From TrEMBL, chains A, B:
Cofactor or coenzyme needed: FMN
Entry GO MF terms: iron-sulfur cluster binding; metal ion binding
Alphabetic keyword roster: Iron, Iron-sulfur, Metal-binding
Protein name: Ferredoxin
Source organism: Azorhizobium caulinodans (strain ATCC 43989 / DSM 5975 / JCM 20966 / LMG 6465 / NBRC 14845 / NCIMB 13405 / ORS 571)
Gene3D superfamilies documented for this protein: Glutaredoxin
Length: 117, 117
């Protein structure tokens, strides 16, 4: 009898320490669903990208996404592997998320949202 | 003295059981970097979306992304919270990822890639 060793989900080497997904969906300002773009996401995500780069940590990255839902809560971003959703409103909020969560590993509780599906 | 109870990263309720990010980056076929789009991603991701919807599980979702890097390895997708990267080549590969990993919670080892940063 031969046994085949099988990798489990948790055996796979991690590529990133933290992978941030930021919604770049843009709808017209009058669109009834709203959008992260209409809520002012773009300058915040530009700052997010710059601040992540400034950490010098190559295992912390940001990826641009299309709509992740929860459009009324925008601008929204989610940090994995923790699955923490944030709603930053100002450049200072972005900086705090980078410093405290992405680098420091501590939750920025005041900016957390828990979207309902 | 007052102590403030602080939530830790793992205390935050999870929105999704599995969140799939699929790269929709499209560059011209002759572009030296390549792209997931040029590697045939679009029909695979269309199927991925349909098959996820067909599971009826609202806590398994897919989000479209821009470039996640590793363009030569495309089409690529990553499943969080596990942080497992896959390179499906056929519709059957996509179906297997949905059934085995997203729903079943077991790795599809033959389709895993571990990109180097």
């Amino acid at each position: 009898m031969t046994e085949t060793a099988t990798l489990s989900l948790t055996d796979v080497p991690q590529v990133y320490k933290r992978h941030v997904f930021a919604c770049f969906q843009q709808r017209p300002p009058t669109h009834p669903r709203g959008s992260c773009g209409a809520a002012g996401a773009q300058p915040l995500w530009e700052r997010l990208g710059k601040q992540i780069e400034a950490t010098g940590q190559r295992d912390i990255v940001m990826t641009a996404t299309g709509c992740m839902g929860f459009c009324q809560a925008g601008p929204i971003m989610v940090v994995y592997p923790e699955g923490v959703w944030y709603q930053p409103r100002t450049p200072e909020d972005v900086d705090e998320i980078v410093t405290t969560h992405l680098v420091g590993g501590t939750l920025v509780e005041r900016l957390v949202i828990v979207p309902r599906i």
